[in-house]
Structure formats: structure tokens, C-alpha cells
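Our consortium's second objective concerns turning raw sequence data into structural hypotheses that experimental partners can test. To show how far this objective has progressed, the report includes one record in full. It was chosen at random from the queue rather than selected for favorable results. The single chain below, 395 residues long, was entered without modification.
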Amino acid sequence: MTKWFICLMLAVVLIAPFSPAITRAESGIRLIDSSAQIAFPAALSFNIEAESQNDIVKIRLHYQVERMNFAQVTEEAWPVFSPSMKVKTQWVWDMRKSNLPVGTTVEYWWTIEDSTGGKLTTPLQKVRFDDISHNWKKMTSDQITILWYSGDQSFADQLMAGCQQALDKLFQDTGVHLERSVSIYVYASTTDLRRAMIFPQEWLGGATYAEFGVIAIGVSPSELATGKRNVAHELGHVVTHQITYSPYGAIIPFWLDEGLATYVEGTLDPYLQYVLQEAVNQHYLISVRSLSSPFSAIPIEAYLSYAESYSIVEFLISHYGGDKIISLLKLFKEGNTYDDALMQVYGFDTDGLDTLWQQDLTSPATSQFKTNDEILGFSQLNTNLLTHNILLEVN
């Protein structure tokens, strides 16, 4: 497994025009310094130095993380220090315990109190938890921002075009669309990506942090076609999460989440087509109800799960119309169960969907399969084609 630890590169962040050296309060407490240090990806340190005519006895850090929320959450931390007329201390956010994705913005301020009850609240400051080990280039189009450091402008242009194409397909076929902006951090390789993460799995090829509107993914400029599919897949997850995000903690079935993400890539990958057809031929399809839960970690079963999920979504769209997909998602947002939501929109539950879908899949009149020879010839040359399509989604 690639180790997560990288050389700690520190960046001191001060927000202009804030000038701590002259900040004072009627209580007599004076702020000398307030800053943040980035040690990506391991830690984010908040530093404070203050003095008073009396002993400083309490210091609290208040901070808010920019993410999707129905209520603004302010968290607090208490740095360790000994009461004194002059205090210098810090609080370290250890990302091994609760980590932030790259590019997350944190707003923070301090409350300082002395022994007489004097109190000083410092001005609001912001820090972005950026990966400063790379010289990032940036381009924005509508609600999507792509950040990359390897590859020319054409590379980023084509990735952006792929994103827009994926979003257009999703909207035209289902009515689902982005509700909030998304930042996509494109690492030059999966190795670079893993170095930028805490305890990554060896197979990790990308990560989606839907509530933060962040995708981090490894895409080599030499593998642009695969990269475009992978980025589109992760973008599909973000859109789905935004549509269903609710105070009820909505959970949608995995087949729908992964099916929409795979559907937005475009036509089903030939290797996945082969895996699905073999499952039909050998009568070992995974049931829709089983696909409602997390997929197997066994590669061939995972491939089949993705292929079936695509097929189920394609079946629903082609036979019942894409507008029903967004209706289904909205019912999940309201907290409906899998069966109740399906029954309200389609008139059948999970098992009913399983029966209808499998009947359609095996019907010669509706089969979309290529012949075994057509697909097998391709798949034998591309047995590792989908290794980086099974990505870590963090929702």
C-alpha cells in the first residue's frame, strides 16, 4: 500500500488587510498573531499569540467548514496553554482522525479571555486546505472548475468538454442537473493522487466528496479517453447527491447511484457488456435488491454490479421516460424507502423491477448485446480496462 505520508510543506496564511500587530480591545487584550499552517494532507494548524495586562486564562478556536449544510455548524477547539500575560499556542487538526478534501475552505476566529473577564473576539479569517506540492492551473466553465498541473491547455479543454457533455446527457435524458459548483482536482497519476490522501487503498483511482463539491482523481494526459469517462462517472455521483441531499439523511439504492454515474459516461463499456452478457448466459445475474447494498470487493462481481446498474437505469429511462428518474430521486430526498419510492413512481417495488428488467434483458427482441465474439475480442486486449473505474466515492 502506498504510504500517505509526504514531506510536510508549510504555508502560512494571513488574510489581508487584517493586521494583528495593532489589533486591540478595550479589555486590554492585544492580538499579536493569528495564522494557519497547511501541512497537506496530514494536518492544518491554527496559531494564536496574544498578550494582556492580566493573565490570559481562556482561548477558544471557532471554525466553520464550507460544505453543503442545512444549518451553519460552528465547531470549537481548545488549545493547551498555561495562563500568562503573554500566550503563544496552537491547535492542530489531525487529518488522520477527521480529514478534509483538497481545496476545502475553513473560516475561523478566536475568543480570548483574561482573568478579569476581559474578552477579545478576533476578526474572521479564511484558509484553503490546498495541496501546495503542485503548481495548479485552473479553468472554469459555468459551475465546473478544473485544476490540473500536468498536461497542456488542450488536455484541460477536452476534460471540460467531457464534463459538459456528461451533464448535458444527464439533463436531457433525466432532467437531473448540477445545483452547486464543483471543483475537479486532476492529479497526473493515481500514484500522485494516493500521495495526497490519508491511508489510501492500493486500488484507489479517485475520490468524490459530494458534500464539499470536490472530486480528486488521477488522470494521465496519455489516458485522456479513460480519464474523461472516469471524471464523468464521478460527476454523476455529485449531481445525484446534490439532488437527493436532505435533512433526512436520504439514502438511495447503490444500483441507482452507480447506474446513473455509469450511464452518464456514455454507452456501456464493451468489457462491461461482455461481463453482463456472460452473466445472462450463465444465469448468475445479481438481483436488484442485492444491488441496493454496497457492491462486492471481488473484481468480477464488482464489474457485474456496475454493468447491471447501468442496464437497470437504461431500462427505466427507455421504457418509462427519464422524467420519472428525477421524481424517484426527489422521493428519496423526502426520506421514502426503496420500495415505497419505486411503487409511487412506477407501480412496482424492487422485486417487481427485478422481474421486469430481467425479462427485458433476456428478450431477443430488446437485447442490445453485441455477439460474444465481437466483445470477447475487445475484452481480451483490455482486461485491465476498468481498474480505475472502480473508484472511492466519499459522500
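The partners drew two points from this record. The chain has two domains: 12-129, 137-394. DSSP finds ten helices and 15 strands in the chain. Both points have been shared with the crystallography group to help prioritize constructs.
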